[in-house]
Design a protein that fits this description.
single chain; two-stranded antiparallel ribbon; two-stranded antiparallel sheet; mainly alpha
């Protein structure tokens, strides 16, 4: 694939960085466009953007460090080198939503309407950002010799181990990207046709948890943390909790049946 987008002298722009920036800008644009319809002013909107971004970075990086603690424990300075990659999407999503939740409480704005919007933004961001993972080779899939649309990495600069270069793999990053973009479109449709705020947030949690649980079976990288004697990865273990939370929230907010 294409881990490095271009080089000019000593400067290089990684594909992962470029697509992560695009994902952030797209989600910010979407949030600003629709948050204004909820009556938020420019200051409030920017407050959500800043806290959501910080929450995503801290949550995503923090969970990655926890999962890979034995690597980071003797190298504490490596923790802050976020530009080298190394994020757990669950941590980023939860961190972003946590920032939105905190700010909504502080500003006394419609909490569940904001959380619905934040959930949509997270689906959009993951949908775009996963193409960066595809280009860089991180979160790579299992080998799939007979798969007609398998991807093959040959650039040593990619995140794929040297021994796997040249082997066809499941494009799990693309699976996740397209699935999240579909979920984004579907939930946007739901959001515009329901007055039960919080339902979209819960549905997004259920969809994301289900997708990650299923796709973990096609992941080939081994740095995801394993629990219960290797039966479940970090994402699958968290997915059970996240799905249960989303289901409970959908039931609760649907019964409430009001905006707020």
């Amino acid at each position: 694939m294409l881990p490095v987008l271009f080089r000019i002298g000593t400067f290089q722009l990684d594909s992962y960085t470029a697509l992560a920036a695009l994902a952030f800008l797209a989600s910010v644009w979407f949030f600003k466009h629709y948050a204004s319809r909820l009556g938020l002013n420019e200051r409030q909107i920017m407050g959500f953007v800043v806290l959501g971004f910080l929450g995503a970075v801290v949550g995503g990086r923090g969970l990655y460090v926890v999962v890979n603690w034995f690597y980071f424990a003797p190298r504490p300075l490596e923790i802050i080198k976020v530009w080298r990659g190394g994020f757990v999407s669950y941590g980023g999503i939860i961190g972003m939503l946590g920032g939105a939740f905190f700010y909504a409480q502080k500003e006394r704005v419609p909490l569940w309407s904001i959380m619905d919007l934040a959930a949509l933004c997270s689906a959009l961001a993951v949908g775009i950002g996963r193409f960066g993972c595809l280009a860089a080779g991180c979160d790579y899939g299992t080998t799939a010799v007979e798969l007609p649309f398998a991807v093959t990495y040959s650039d040593p600069a990619s995140a794929v181990p040297i021994e796997l270069l040249g082997l066809p793999m499941h494009p799990v990053q693309a699976y996740m990207a397209f699935a999240n973009l579909f979920v984004f479109g579907f939930l946007w449709f739901v959001l515009k046709r329901t007055n039960r705020s919080g339902v979209v947030f819960g549905l997004q949690a259920m969809f994301y948890a289900s997708l990650r649980f299923w796709l973990e079976g096609y992941r080939g990288d081994l740095d995801r943390g394993m629990f219960f004697d290797g039966q479940f990865s970090t994402a699958q273990s968290m997915g059970i909790v996240w799905f249960s939370f989303g289901l409970g929230l959908v039931v609760y907010r649907w019964k409430r049946g009001r905006i707020g």
